[in-house]
Amino acid sequence: MINRQSPCVFILCVLLIPSLFSCGVGNDPHKVSEAFCFRYFIKLNQAEALEIASGLAADKLRKEIELLKGDARNFQDGEREFHRSKPFLDYKMIQRTDQDADHVMFLYHLSIEPRQGGEKMEREILVSTIRENGRWKVNNYEDYR
């Protein structure tokens, strides 16, 4: 007896299983830019941001990672103390500029509020993305003001 559903189940498995492993950032300049901002500003994780960076952005992140190997992030109670001390951060995209088919820039408004009181800071950050070998990456980021 031949099971008519077997070919359908097989085809669905072949199509769906790869998609389970590709639940990353995606290949869209806006999604890559948003993922970069989340990893860098919210999670404060340069190593994760480096995964979707190239060029000058990757160079900046590698330098920061090297600097953080010292005592810059060494807290007595470890990561828990670090996360209790880090400021509240929020960002919002305020402008997109398509320079050409392979270069898109995003301007973000960043709000930084210390946990222990103090003055709230506002910044504008420019994030530049580029398509390299068919994949979008952040190739630079900088304080716009």
Describe this structure in words.
This protein is an alpha+beta fold and 145 residues long. The chain has one domain (28-143): Nuclear Transport Factor 2, Chain: A, CATH 3.10.450. The protein contains five helices and four strands. It has a four-stranded antiparallel sheet with strand order 1-2-3-4. The protein is globular and about 45 Å long. The N and C termini lie far apart (72 Å). Residues 8-23 have low confidence and may be disordered.
What's the short story on this structure?
The protein is of the alpha+beta class and 145 residues long. Helix content is 39%, strand content 31%.
Low-confidence stretches: 8-23
Proportion of helical residues: 25-40%
- Quickly give the CATH architecture: Roll
**Largest β-sheet summary:** 4 strands, antiparallel
Mean pLDDT: 82
CATH topology label:
Nuclear Transport Factor 2, Chain: A
Secondary structure tally: strands: 4
Shape category:
globular
Rg for CA atoms:
20 Å
Strand order of the largest sheet: 1-2-3-4
Distance between the termini: 72 Å
H and E string: HHHHHEEEE
What is the C-level CATH assignment?
Alpha Beta
The helix/strand class is alpha+beta
Content of β-strand:
25-35%
Quaternary class: single chain
The DSSP helix count reads 5
Secondary structure topology:
Blueprint: H1 5-21, H2 29-42, H3 46-50, H4 55-68, H5 79-85, E1 88-100, E2 103-113, E3 121-132, E4 135-143
Antiparallel strand pairs: 1-2, 2-3, 3-4
